[in-house]
Amino acid sequence: MSGGVLPVVRIQRQDFDVAAEIARLTQGRADIGAVVTFSGLCRDEQGALSALELEHYPGMAEAEIARIAAEAVERWPLQGLTAIHRHGKIAPGENIVLVVTASVHRQAAFEAANFLMDYLKSRAPFWKKEHRADGSEGGWVEAKEADDEAAGRWKSSD
Amino acid sequence: MTTRLIYFAWVRERIGMPEEDVDLPAGIETVADLLRWLKSRGEGYEHALQYPDVIRVAINQEHVEHREKIAGAREIALFPPMTGG
C-alpha cells in the first residue's frame, strides 16, 4: 500500500505554512480520510530564552529524515507524508518542525506521525543552542534520555 | 588516504574548527580507534572527546557504532547526541 508514496522532505531556513502543506498532500484527490499534522515550536522558557539556534549537518539531515520517512511509508498504509525541519535562528513562538501524514483511516496517520517525530528527535542531525533573554551566552540543549526511549518503543512492536 | 573529519555543535566549538582533512596513521581501524587518536592531538580535542562514549559518529552521512570499521570512509562526522525536532 506504500507503493507510489514519495515522502516530501525539506530542510530550510524559512518558515513553512501548515495549511499550504496539508493542501499540497490533499489537493485534487478524494481518497484521503485522515490528515495528521504535528508542529514543533520554539518555547521562551518562561521568558528566559530569546532564540534557539539550530545547527544541522547539511546533506545528512535530508538523508536521515528521508530514511526515517521511507521506513514510515513502509510500516503504515500512508497516502502522503511531508517532513520539514528548519535551521538557523528561530525566535520563541516560531515553527521549528512539521510532520504531515495522510491515510485512509486515522490510526495510520497518527501512528506514523508519532513514529516520525520520535525518530527525528533522536536520529536527525540537528543541535539546538540557546540564546538567553538577558544577553548571556546560553548552552547547547542537552539530549533527553526520554527521547531515546520514545524512539526505542517502536522497535519492540516489530 | 585523506579522510575529511567534520564536527558539529559543542564538539566543533571545543575542537575549534568545523572540519579538517587528516591522514590517518596506520592502526586506526575503528571509530573507537579514531576517537582515541584524535583525543591525543591537543587540548581542544581532549576537551571535546573527554567522554568518548557520548560522541555520536556518522560515516559518509550515516550513523554508525563505535566498533564500526572506518576503512574507505570519505567523510566522518563527530557530534553530540542530537536535539532536533
UniProtKB/TrEMBL annotation, chain B:
CDD domains tied to this protein: Ubl_MoaD
Pfam families per record: ThiS
UniProt name for this protein: Molybdopterin converting factor subunit 1
Gene symbol of the encoding locus: moaD
